[in-house]
Design goal:
The protein starts with a strand and ends in a 15-residue tail after the last strand. By secondary structure, it is an alpha/beta fold. Strand 23 and strand 24 form a beta hairpin. The chain folds into four domains: about 140 residues, Nucleotidyltransferase, domain 5 (2-Layer Sandwich), CATH 3.30.420.40; about 210 residues, Nucleotidyltransferase, domain 5; about 110 residues, no CATH class; about 80 residues, Beta Barrel (Barwin-like endoglucanases). The longest helix is centred in the middle third of the chain and has 25 residues. The structure holds adenosine-5'-diphosphate (ADP). The site of adenosine-5'-diphosphate (ADP) has 12 residues, from helix 10 and helix 12.
């Protein structure tokens, strides 16, 4: 499919016509000084139309910076969607109006084509509550939509997928720190393919030092600036967004190349700009390794990440304590491009890879737009999927079992579970958290090779621990917990997880549904009177499995599910992490 990708900024329109499968560029260009054109964006897009000649266009993909809480995935543009994007303007007053003007103009120029809006914020919709919440009065925050949203989603997602392909490891098994360092800059912690932390917040002003934006700043400074400017909020906005960052620090330029040149010639302000910039990025890398309990690769992208070898060297020195050994030679030689996307700049014996990757937001937008436009949106409900609610439970090794119940104890079956060979045991243990205890937590048999404790978010709060959301079996680097049995207690250093919702199925089922092991899907489930869609449901395929979706008690309660409910598969996330089929289904 030929997709025209349009990116309307405050003063320019960038466009690329891409073939969505081959990713070949058919045409590209830029219209500058749009605001000075008498016909504004419409005139600019007429120019784009003219420059395309007879090049085929089958769909239009629009970059939209802020999707707010409403848009968590690409959508086909309708009048209602335009209103929704309009409603997000207060959250992104600098960006959304231009994006919208571009969409309206393009719909007038190409009235018969499908238009798809793709959002910079969407990749971050998984941000856990602890990462997306500002410590403000909760009511004030909720009423104004004040929370962290994150940006640069297309770039972080694209680069994460490139990294996974290059590392030949599924995204589900990776913890990545992606540093997008361009004029705008943000860091993203990508765990199992999802953004779990990112440095930009409600607006693209938070986080790193950028070309002209301050990034993180004491809110007290903002208040003081407002006072000093006699309450002129717009003036302070302009100061923080347009005259700070590298430009403000250096006093000469927002372009790192200029700054590096002057720093080399002895300019102190330029030297300070470089070191403040680098320090901030390093701080985030360390923080995000802490957030994910480790890291498998650190990725640099964007104009500075892809080209700034000297800056890369500053950024990645002295991370041996994290297992990252940087290679000066490889860094100096690293060149990335559309053809050679990835360069490894870590030393051969480095446990953590350091990668330079050429980002490509347009390809990502084209892929997403093509999928939505192609619109294979039928509900793929071949046969309903039974939904089972899993209560908190414990899997143990034989050794752990004997420490808890004594050397002569036997693990005995109380009742079989629906998955063949699995059973709920007679034996229960107590989970001991730093805050409180949870008693009578059942052991599930048979014995496993690793100890694993699966709890819900509510349990987490009760115990006073933070557990990562993981698939069963992925316990490396998960949270510690103490188990208590009648004969003794065992302090696990890891093994506590919140289970990722998943569907068990056989290879035959997977084939029938058109999904693969580790795919993520959306499942519409009917509750008492109201249905809802569970996103991020992971497919687990094994010949021994029986078709069943597992959710935890919190999720079941939130959905108000009856005892025996069923789900229908309504969307599949493809290998590139984008949804191939999606719609809001009418749930029976
Ligand atoms: P945008 O966010 O506007 O897309 P880019 O990703 O193109 O920005 O990044 C622009 C930044 O990349 C500028 O600060 C520029 O100085 C920097 N950059 C480009 N090439 C180099 C280089 N060779 N060395 C250092 N910085 C570079």
């Amino acid at each position: 499919m030929h997709v025209l990708v349009i990116n309307c900024g405050s003063s320019s329109v960038k466009y690329v016509l891409l073939q969505s499968q081959t990713e070949a560029i058919v045409a590209s260009g830029r219209v500058e000084r749009v605001r000075e054109l008498p016909g504004g964006f419409q005139e600019a897009l007429q120019q784009v139309l003219a420059s395309l000649g007879d090049a085929p266009v089958e769909a239009v993909g629009h970059r939209v910076v802020h999707g707010g809480e409403r848009f968590t995935a690409p959508v086909r543009v309708t009048d209602e969607v335009v209103e929704g994007i309009q409603a997000c303007v207060p959250l992104a007053p600098l960006h959304n109006p231009s994006n919208l003007a571009g969409i309206e103009a393009a719909r007038a120029v190409w009235p018969d084509l499908p238009h798809v809006a793709v959002f910079d914020t969407a990749f971050h919709y998984h941000l856990p509550r602890r990462a997306r919440t500002y410590a403000l009065d909760a009511e004030v925050a909720a009423s104004a939509g004040i929370r962290r949203y994150g940006f640069h989603g297309m770039s972080h997602a694209f680069v994460a997928h490139q990294a996974a392909a290059w590392l030949e490891t599924p995204l589900a098994d990776l913890r990545l720190i992606v540093c997008h360092l361009g004029n705008g800059a943000s860091v993203c912690a990508v765990e199992a393919g999802h953004s779990v932390e990112t440095s930009m917040g409600m607006t693209p002003l938070e986080g790193l030092v950028m070309g002209t934006r301050s990034g993180d700043i004491d809110p007290g400074v903002v208040l003081e600036l407002v006072r000093r400017h006699g309450g002129d909020v717009e003036a302070v906005d302009a100061l923080l967004n347009q005259r700070s960052g590298l430009l403000g620090l250096s006093g000469v330029s927002n372009d790192l190349r200029d700054i590096e040149e002057r720093a080399a010639a002895g300019d102190e302000r330029c030297r300070a700009a470089i070191s403040v910039f680098a320090h901030r990025v390093r701080k985030y890398i360390g923080a995000y390794a802490a957030v994910m309990g480790g890291v498998d690769a650190v990725i640099l992208t964007g104009g500075i990440g892809e080209n700034g070898a000297a800056m890369r060297q500053r950024l990645l020195q002295r991370f041996e304590y994290l297992g990252l050994r940087f290679s000066e030679e490889r860094n100096a030689d690293a060149r990335v491009s559309r053809e050679a996307r990835v360069a490894d700049i870590s030393a051969r014996n480095s446990r953590v890879r350091a990668l330079v990757i050429a980002t490509d937001e347009e390809i990502m937008i084209a892929r997403e737009a093509a999928k939505v436009a192609q619109g294979a949106q039928e509900i793929r409900s071949l046969r309903p999927i039974p939904v089972a609610v899993s209560a908190r439970h414990v899997h143990v090794t034989e050794a752990t079992f004997h420490k808890l119940f004594g050397p002569d104890a036997q693990l005995t079956e109380r009742r079989p579970l629906s998955q063949p060979g699995q059973f709920a045991a007679e034996q229960v243990v107590t989970l001991v958290g730093p805050r409180r205890r949870l008693e009578n937590v059942r052991i599930l048999g048979p014995f496993r090779s690793k100890d694993q404790v699966e709890i819900s978010r509510t349990d987490e709060f009760h115990l006073g621990v933070d557990a990562p959301v993981r698939l069963s079996g992925q316990t490396a680097g998960s949270a510690p917990i103490t188990l208590e049995g009648p004969a003794g207690s065992v302090a696990l250093t890891e093994g506590l997880i919140c289970a990722w919702r998943h569907i068990h199925m056989t290879p035959e089922d997977a084939e029938a549904y058109g999904v693969h092991h580790n795919d993520e899907v959306e499942v519409a489930v009917s509750g008492h009177g109201r249905g809802l869609v569970f996103r991020d449901v992971v497919i687990r395929v094994d010949p021994s499995f029986k078709l069943e979706m597992h959710i935890d008690t919190d999720e079941a309660n939130a959905a108000d599910l009856p005892q025996h409910s069923e789900g229908a598969l309504v969307g599949v996330e493809g290998a590139e992490g984008t949804l191939q089929r999606r719609r809001t289904p009418s749930v029976p």
